[in-house]
């Protein structure tokens, strides 16, 4: 019996803390480096950032001989296509996912949803309720953290504890962690998070410029792309591999990792 395709949202209501970037990083790492089959549904109307990145990536591998060669070598060695990215408004996102699953030539392990950052947008709450797992990036900025905890608490109260959806778990993830910040501050925040009954991942992502390394005319090592995997030299020390490992333990283990 084939395993069910898991619906995953990297979701928060606060902009600028890496929701879309983390969706791309995880999708590409799992699909191109870890052997999983992934699809992405970009629901973040009107900017559709992930779809925009795919269009830029496609242009680069079509017009730039350096990236064309990289993409060709990768496609040959992996013997698999780039993961599909579909654009959809939030209310239609689940139907779009079902269509992708029906039309896919291979069984899909994960479909990642990039949803609008506001719960008030039409269809967001009902779509979130259909996720198997939600991952919410948080930072140690007090205003960002309060907003993120309020968001996670609302999902927990309205969907998870009431059993009105499919969500098996919501996990917070420290993002943009500054090595110079006081560890005691994180301990205090984690105590508050535990008191709220929310779960937080043990792994975290540091604040590093490498996460912004996209395809450019300078041909520097790439970290974030929808068509190419993160450069192995840049993965070292990025914690992306650790976050992905813990992510897999959570979603494949059907529990808390």
Automatic annotation (TrEMBL):
<dbReference type="InterPro" id="IPR050678">
    <property type="entry name" value="DNA_Partitioning_ATPase"/>
</dbReference>
<protein>
    <submittedName>
        <fullName>Cellulose biosynthesis protein BcsQ</fullName>
    </submittedName>
</protein>
<dbReference type="InterPro" id="IPR002586">
    <property type="entry name" value="CobQ/CobB/MinD/ParA_Nub-bd_dom"/>
</dbReference>
<feature type="domain" description="CobQ/CobB/MinD/ParA nucleotide binding">
    <location>
        <begin position="8"/>
        <end position="214"/>
    </location>
</feature>
<dbReference type="InterPro" id="IPR027417">
    <property type="entry name" value="P-loop_NTPase"/>
</dbReference>
<dbReference type="Pfam" id="PF01656">
    <property type="entry name" value="CbiA"/>
</dbReference>
